[in-house]
Amino acid sequence: MSHANVAIFVPHNGCPNQCSFCNQKNITGVTHQPSPGEVEDILKNVKNNNKDMQIAFFGGSFTAIDQSYMINLLKVASNYVKKGHFSGIRISTRPDAINDNILNILEKYNVTDIELGAQSMNDDVLRANHRGHTREDIISASNLIKSRGFSLGLQMMTGLYKSNYNIDYQTGIDILNIRPDTIRIYPTVILKGTQLETLYKTGYYNTLSFDKTVDLCCKLLSLFESNNIPVIRLGLHFSESLCSNMVGGVFHPAFREICESRILLYKIQSLIKERNINPGVLRVKVQPKYISKLVGHNKSNIKKLKDARYILKIEQDSSIKGNILI
Description:
single chain, alpha/beta
């Protein structure tokens, strides 16, 4: 399943309220609202004719924007899908901005994938962060989208105000029970100009530590992928605007790789314990494509095993099943 996108940002357009964590300008650096003509120019320059790419409207609550503006954008995009230049259209929106009428419009204009910003499945957390919708809204919208034959994506955040490790993991379980087609996981980044910045600077809020967030996201990644739900994004995309406006929270441009490396470390530690392997040289066979993840970011896995008195010796072996073998 391909998730290559031609991303078109409709920044902070359609959102009925200001969530505690949100400052779209500081995340993407984009403030301009694209016209249908500008969308035409973008798609004309990137059309590829092999149907391995989607047109994606991101950045706001697409189905909550002015309906005539939304339809005009969709008309342009739909023409390129009909001509075979793209596989479909992906949009992101809010759970409370989905109904049968909206889905009729999206279906008419070749929208194939709908992503909902769920963020949390805990009503107290949703309320504290001014999301403006409930857990039930997420479930109802998700079920409606699936019943109409659209591909459903859900987005969740870790480390929000009034949340914690256990609440976030339970959100993952609740999202798993909805059975979306894809999931995105975003650790909270505290940005300038947001309510979270005020709460953070006055001592009323802090996110999970980087290490705890990695541990949590390892569990979430394993939870979803072991149940055949692809995690198509883990951590925010890098941008200069994001980095210059971040005042706290968890961000790393290689966050997913760090989590995947940690998962391999956990697997090795579990096998050491299970087999009662004594400290010393630890020989590990690895599929070649997993070598960098086994070593870890800045050789973190090698260092942690060395601290436990194990010297990692790596042997490439493309014949083994899975990723590593001890």
